[in-house]
Design goal:
Chain lengths: 257, 175
């Protein structure tokens, strides 16, 4: 083995990555070549220094807990995704029993299922916004900053209410994706709790707010107003969230925004 | 596979490698905060794609995801860093004696060593970290970095050569 070839294999030799034949050849060369044997000494001293340095970082215990928790949540979310079709299936099975009931029940089931799917999206978007620490793309308590921010990012202009006086300060807005379309997400705060309000154009007529679901400790409210769909989600006390929803729906801040 | 089983299986196969994940993320991002974010993001991604895991080498599989997550982040935040110096010859310091190993090793403290490793281009840095701190084989590193084994070998050689030069400079400054 010539000098150049041996030199190129020094690191692999040092790392024990050569086959026996290669090892032998390098060893033979090391005995003859002073330059290489010195290089080898240096490399191995360096390798020892790095390896024995204690420079390997360890994951903080707090991170481990956070990840375990997030994984459990994710697993639960996947699980509930799978039970939705099953519920629908059960409903469908019962329809077969009473043909008459079909006419009455089917539209309701459809609606309910559609709501279920949207609720899942909404909840997922809410949890992600908290988990990824990505609440707002535009952070402002000023509705005149938040509302124009959506211009050109969406094909509609979401109404933005400021409810700071009522104890629900606006903290910002961001783009999100729900029900297969980009939507506006408005973020409000109540003490240490966050409320995400998702807004996008509605096809259906105005409908009063009602609680759609309670999942994993979050409450979800939905209503339709002024041609817009609204979904509000939070881990806030239900009565607090309900009064927040009422204020938003009635436009408690007064006037058009 | 039910969700419960999936989580249990995942926790058993992938969770134990969190130190390795954090270590490489910490060296690639060079700060704690971002390293933590990278690891958490990687774990959620890994869980999502866990069905694609063949069950052979959980550490290498996880670190591949961590590495990709970190590189995406590096591209977005530290675009410049990813340009490796390919024109650098491996042994340009051929005649420069690095001096008898034992004494020099004694003069190098961990801080100096850490600074020198951090000064390496990302591809070199990860090779050294995966090899000398994680003890991974060339084959495993090749899998994580998605390059041929030969490339791992030459990256390591270049990385160590550069590390030696950096340390020599530091020692000279100190002297």
């Amino acid at each position: 083995m010539n000098h150049e070839a041996a030199r190129n294999l020094l690191d692999a030799y040092l790392d024990g990555e050569l086959d026996p034949a290669g090892r032998l050849e390098v060893e033979r060369h090391l005995q003859e070549c002073q330059l290489c044997s010195q290089g080898y000494e240096e490399q191995s001293a360096l390798k020892r220094a790095v390896g024995g340095s204690g420079l390997r970082y360890k994951a903080p215990a707090e991170l481990q807990q956070r990840i375990r928790f997030a994984l459990r949540r994710e697993a639960n979310a996947e699980k509930s995704e799978r039970t939705v079709p099953r519920r629908w299936f059960a409903a469908a099975a019962s329809l077969a029993v009473a043909a008459l009931a079909l006419l009455v029940v089917l539209p309701f089931v459809r609606d309910r299922r559609a709501d279920d799917l949207v609720a899942r999206d909404v909840l997922g978007a809410h949890v992600r916004s908290l988990m990824a620490n990505h609440l707002a793309d535009v952070s402002s308590s000023d509705k005149h900053t938040v509302k124009p921010w959506f211009d050109g990012k969406l094909d509609f202009s979401p109404p933005v209410e400021d409810l700071a006086a009522q104890g629900f300060p606006l903290i910002g807005g961001r783009l999100d994706y729900v029900d297969n379309r980009p939507v506006a997400a408005l973020v409000y705060q109540r003490k240490k709790h966050f409320i995400n309000v998702f807004v996008w154009p509605a096809e259906s007529r105005a409908a009063d707010a009602k609680k759609i679901a309670e999942r994993q400790g979050y409450d979800l409210f939905h209503w339709t107003k002024g041609g817009m769909n609204y979904w509000a989600v939070s881990d806030l006390e239900e009565s607090d969230l309900r009064s927040f929803v009422d204020m938003l729906q009635k436009g408690a801040a007064g006037g058009k925004s | 596979m039910g969700e419960k089983d999936k989580l249990a299986h995942f926790e058993e196969a992938i969770l134990p490698h969190m130190d390795a994940a954090y270590n490489i993320a910490r060296w690639l991002t060079r700060n704690e905060r971002d390293a933590e974010d990278m690891v958490q993001e990687s774990y959620l991604r890994a869980f999502k794609f866990f069905d694609a895991f063949t069950g052979v080498n959980g550490r290498a599989w996880l670190l591949t995801i961590v590495r990709n997550t970190c590189y995406t982040w590096l591209q977005q935040n530290r675009g410049r860093e990813l340009m490796t110096e390919f024109d650098e010859t491996i042994h340009s310091e051929e005649n420069e004696a690095w001096n008898p190993a034992a004494q020099v090793a004694k003069q190098i403290d961990n801080r100096m060593l850490a600074q020198a490793i951090e000064a390496l281009p990302a591809e070199y840095r990860e090779a050294v970290v995966l090899r000398d701190l994680e003890g991974m084989s060339y084959k495993e590193i090749a899998e994580v970095a998605a390059v041929p084994v030969g490339t791992v070998m030459s990256r390591l050689a270049r990385a160590r050569g550069k590390l030696k030069r950096l340390l020599t400079e530091r020692l000279k400054e100190k002297a």
